[in-house]
């Protein structure tokens, strides 16, 4: 391996640590919601707000991160995101009430939005064309690694909190389990901030600011001197004629020449979120509890989700510059569609029956006599069963013991539910998960790339916010079957969109793609 390739990989991995923080920060909430719902006495929409509030500010950050990075530089803003992640971790872990908790989570959203935009842009701008797909995919790899680590640490803290070890008891891992889950993020945030000091500035950003000598020196570290000069010349030609430091208006995105790339970008942005991936990731333990397997098992299966996401993201990185973007997208959307139909079928086949034996396993806090009228009754869907439980136990008692009550009564093929979830996650991870950000970094012309990616990233984040906000409400009011059926329909529509509209971009330089797609 050449020193140029090693340098490129090292820089890409460091910058992509922002993806790790984003993945950890976003998905750690999956283990927290079970505990903050009763502690803060949240409604289902408030619970959705606790999860989705991060995406709301991430949406705002996406709209501003691109233009700010065009002005001040990618590297400087990435360092700011590391600081934001650290402050958010401390604030959310120490939050005394729901309002402070949401404010701290929303602060973290600024880091999430900025890192989602800036990391892939920086990596695309420093990587040679033949390595760009894999290097940009490092960001998605780090996102799913962060997700996997969050699932694992959530489960580890849960188990340690139930242990009798003195050090775990002294740290109050049982009483403060969700606070420790959130607070751990400060460690990778500090590491990221320190590591960014050895990362150079983006060569394309330097060229855009007429600092071509500096840009050339950095380009020579990732490729041969001859190739570096050719790349710099191509960058120069793509922005020639622009007024120095001219402000790029968002109106330029809507010019006729941009119609094709904007349609593709918006389509991918919507598709990645509306198919339900963030609902699955951020509510994984909740979904598994709906299949009646209990709290501990649901946290274990959430770890399987994270590992599946990680493994198939690695597969995508290995294949993206070999097979290309479009074949992986087509295969992935087909798998996501099938998976969501499997989940809808699995939950639709479930029945719920309380027996004398199963009620004996319930916590002593539940008044057994209140359940007498329900023993022996069979409910064909979870909504009717939950409504009956709420009526006899009261809403507060049902919320506190929902997982145990479902486990006691559910007759469902939990293996089929696990298969559907893992198939969905694998299909997403090998396709639109990493490829959307790769294509975002490829589709748009150099001069407007920052604001363009901010715009389509804003759309993606806004859809994500909506999905996360209403998902608990959907499960409570529409039921599991209808919720996953809706996601299946959106995935099927996305499959058609990929075949019909999305081009292949592998192996082409950013300037070649601009000439091809911008008419």
Could you characterize what this model shows?
- This protein is mostly helical and 519 residues long.
- It is built from 27 helices and 3 strands.
- A 3-stranded antiparallel beta sheet has the order 2-1-3.
In terms of topology, how is this protein built?
Elements: H1 3-15, H2 17-27, H3 29-39, H4 44-72, H5 74-93, H6 98-126, H7 129-161, H8 166-170, H9 177-183, H10 186-195, H11 203-208, H12 212-219, H13 225-239, H14 259-274, H15 277-282, H16 284-289, H17 295-319, H18 325-348, E1 351-353, H19 356-359, E2 378-379, H20 382-393, H21 395-400, H22 402-409, E3 410-411, H23 414-429, H24 432-443, H25 449-477, H26 479-501, H27 510-517
Antiparallel strand pairs: 1-2, 1-3
Overall pLDDT level: 86
Number of strands: 3
CATH superfamily name of the largest domain? Answer: MFS general substrate transporter like domains
Rounded to the nearest angstrom, the radius of gyration is: 24 Å
Low-confidence stretches: 241-245
Count of individual domains: 2
**From the coordinates shown, what is the CATH architecture of the largest domain?**
Up-down Bundle
Quaternary: single chain
Which class do the helix and strand fractions yield?
mainly alpha
Helix content: over 70%
Instruction: Note the beta-strand portion.
Output: under 5%
